[in-house]
């Protein structure tokens, strides 16, 4: 794709940043990008073997010097990529220096004193995007690859960064372009009887497919979010059910306040954690009961709202009570998915708990079963993700929804025999929404938001 958009042009000023993690380390990598880099850095980076200048894609041992003091700062292995055949599309130099923080800081400072400026977070990838080396979904994928801490995030990040979503979107755009061409033919040759119907058949064949794939894409959103942001697991139950105790156990830290006083947790607490290597967003909430306390009532309403939206509801009821109070309240929630958990199993096994998973944070009973069950819910979402295209962000979702709205208007028009120009207009609108996803028509604000979520040096 090309993205030669005027408002996004940058001047190619040389930028540099530490691309590897903060040292001390065996090796640190300083990345530099810009137009005509070689003359700019020639007084700083000098091939050790004297005469030989840097050549593209040839690793070369270099002396890295401070030209002002004449000091040799390090002997580093240097890679040079001549633009446009580089990550950013500009000239890129990567200095693999000894990974001491002092050396890194000296080399960077020397560069900054000699015409290079510090890169913003994500600026290398942003330049790659602006120079047409990748589309916006691939950029998001690179951001997510770098941030991934779990298998599920890596699956989603690979999907984006290898261009799977982009390919899906491009194929939909092509279908829309073909459909618009048939509508055009209809406009140009309106009175040809059978041929006219044939044109519309050609149009419909394509738009039907576009609509079907868009609906399919939209249906992947929840699982895509589970992959990238984690499975939302909410703890739901009466006061004193042991929700906060379980929260702390799963987080492996004392995060929520635990007391025998009913109504201790009033606001909700959300924390990210890994459970059996799966990324989870755990939410501890106020216990559900009738309450006259204003603050507690607000907390209870919030708990019900969160319970409705959670990917998975852990329904907790304590085993030291003969009756189960929580099941009746579940009706108005109708959770997406739930696991019924009888807590404090060390205190008894009441009749209602027969088919419930019995756990105890006191003795540790069945806690492994619980974490295994939560992990399995994550995996079932990940297994649902189709290989040929799924969406992972609110940005993707709203664009797909907007495209679908235009498709609905298109079909309304078709049923009402609207003029072909009007039909073509809706298809064009749908195609614009899809362009938004790959970033051909994105505004500065969207780009700034996406690229600011990168870490430095990417
Ligand atoms: N015996 C026993 N007591 C527990 C267990 N889990 C929690 N408790 C106690 O039950 C009380 C309420 O726990 P808490 O986590 O604050 O409940 P919440 O109101 O649902 O958040 C506290 O005194 C806990 O120590 C358990 O597995 N066994
Ligand atoms: Mg609590």
Key traits:
single chain, 458 residues, alpha/beta, Gyrase A, domain 2, Four Helix Bundle (Hemerythrin (Met), subunit A), Rossmann fold, 3 domains, seven-stranded mixed sheet, 13 strands, 17% strand, flat, binds guanosine-5'-diphosphate, binds magnesium ion
Task: Please characterize this protein's 3D structure.
By secondary structure, the protein is of the alpha/beta class. It is built from 15 helices and 13 strands. The strands form 2 sheets. Strands 3-4-5-6-2-1-7 form a 7-stranded mixed beta sheet. It has a 6-stranded mixed beta sheet with strand order 9-10-8-11-12-13, sandwiched between helices. The two termini are 21 Å apart. The N terminus is likely disordered. Bound molecules: guanosine-5'-diphosphate and magnesium ion.
Q: For the record, give the distance between the C-alpha atoms at the N and C termini, rounded to a whole number.
A: 21 Å
Helix-strand sequence: EEHEEEEHEHHHHHHEHEEHEHEEHHHH
What is the oligomeric state here? single chain
Assign the CATH superfamily of the largest domain: P-loop containing nucleotide triphosphate hydrolases
Bound molecules: guanosine-5'-diphosphate, magnesium ion
Largest sheet: 7 strands, mixed
Task: Chart the SSEs and their pairings.
Layout: E1 15-18, E2 25-34, H1 37-41, E3 45-47, E4 60-65, E5 72-81, E6 91-99, H2 101-112, E7 117-118, H3 123-130, H4 136-147, H5 151-161, H6 164-188, H7 194-219, H8 221-229, E8 231-237, H9 243-251, E9 269-275, E10 278-284, H10 294-309, E11 312-318, H11 327-330, E12 338-343, E13 357-358, H12 367-384, H13 394-415, H14 420-438, H15 444-452
Parallel strand pairs: 1-7, 8-10, 8-11, 11-12, 12-13
Antiparallel strand pairs: 1-2, 2-6, 3-4, 4-5, 5-6, 9-10
Helix pairs in contact: 4-5, 5-8, 6-7, 6-14, 7-13, 8-12, 13-14
Bound molecules: guanosine-5'-diphosphate and magnesium ion.
